[in-house]
């Protein structure tokens, strides 16, 4: 409107000055002024008004490009894994942008809800796929013994010591015995050393009882199954050279209310971060609820299933190492009714 007002004033002033000349000149000048005004209108139609002005940095729309790497890197932070894959296959340019390791690292940590634990041995895109493609530890071996499974979540080990427990209450004292079976019999807990640090993924497995070598049993048992995030990508696991080893077992020959198992990073055993795991009344469910329940914290995971009348329970602890003398890369705690 301001531009139009200036244009009107200019035309009016010019017309007023022309009143002192003859009619022919006035007529000529009016026609000339009209042509000028028409040209000015055309120019004004191509000019944006104040209400739709653009940034001085983007006045030339012809230079804008949708192929801005920084823009799409930022957009990728809000996309899930499936959407990232779909975007990456649209063109070579998008594939080169989306397959950056930083994008998949952000997506993996975000979806697993864990902090960055440092360097990893595989690309984050492969780690994301192994964590979210529906794979579990019974897909490669012992498939005939597997019934069902449930993803609990992810946690992390900052230290190389794991604290394993079959009791819901926090430990009064930390066991110091070296023989795991002795520790389990006396305390119901044990320490496991040489654990691989980093991100761990926890699942709840439902398997057939023959896997626990108990005769005349056709029932099922639950298993807390935790593994390092890199396990499924490791050559030793894929070729079957790494296997599970029984490291301890414990029988409770009396009625138990629930099948409980927990894994803690020993460094955070008494921390407020894991205090919620020991507050079992807030998550195990009511006495008549026999569905499995689980809880996960930044450095701990636990499961519990309320049991009906029973004569006791057998708890077994299995570990998988990365080679004969390697680090512990997987932990299993199984519970079976006697």
From TrEMBL:
Record's GO cellular component terms: nucleus
A biological-process GO annotation: reproductive system development
Name of the protein in question: Probable F-box protein At3g61730
InterPro entries: F-box-like_dom_sf
Domain of life: Eukaryota
């Amino acid at each position: 409107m301001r531009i139009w007002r200036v244009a009107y004033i200019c035309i009016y002033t010019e017309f007023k000055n022309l009143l002192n000349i003859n009619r022919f000149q006035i007529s000529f000048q009016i026609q000339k002024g009209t042509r000028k005004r028409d040209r000015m209108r055309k120019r004004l139609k191509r000019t944006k008004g104040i209400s739709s002005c653009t940034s001085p940095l983007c006045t030339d729309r012809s230079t804008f490009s949708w192929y801005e790497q920084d823009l799409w890197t930022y957009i990728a932070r809000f996309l899930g894994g499936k959407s990232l894959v779909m975007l990456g296959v649209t063109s070579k340019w998008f594939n080169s942008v989306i397959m950056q390791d930083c994008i998949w690292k952000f997506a993996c940590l975000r979806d697993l809800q864990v902090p960055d634990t440092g360097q990893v041995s595989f690309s984050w895109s492969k780690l994301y796929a192994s964590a979210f493609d529906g794979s579990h530890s019974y897909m490669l071996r012992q498939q005939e013994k597997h019934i069902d499974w449930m993803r609990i979540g992810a946690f992390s080990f900052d230290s190389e010591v794991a604290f394993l427990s079959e009791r819901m209450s926090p430990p009064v004292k930390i066991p110091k015995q070296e023989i795991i079976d002795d520790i389990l019999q006396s305390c119901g807990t044990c320490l496991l050393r040489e654990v691989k640090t980093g991100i761990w993924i926890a699942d709840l497995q439902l398997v057939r009882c023959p896997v626990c070598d108990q005769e005349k049993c056709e029932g099922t048992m639950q298993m807390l199954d935790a593994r390092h995030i890199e396990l499924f990508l490791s050559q030793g696991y894929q070729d079957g050279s790494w296997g599970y080893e029984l490291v301890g077992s414990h029988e409770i020959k009396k009625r138990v209310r629930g099948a409980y198992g927990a894994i803690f990073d020993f460094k955070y055993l008494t921390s407020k971060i894991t205090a919620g795991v020991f507050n079992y009344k807030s998550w195990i469910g009511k006495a008549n609820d026999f569905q499995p329940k689980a809880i996960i914290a930044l450095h701990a995971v636990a499961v519990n299933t309320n049991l009906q009348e029973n004569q006791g329970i057998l708890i077994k602890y299995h570990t998988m190492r990365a080679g004969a003398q390697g680090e512990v890369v997987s932990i299993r705690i199984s519970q079976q009714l006697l």
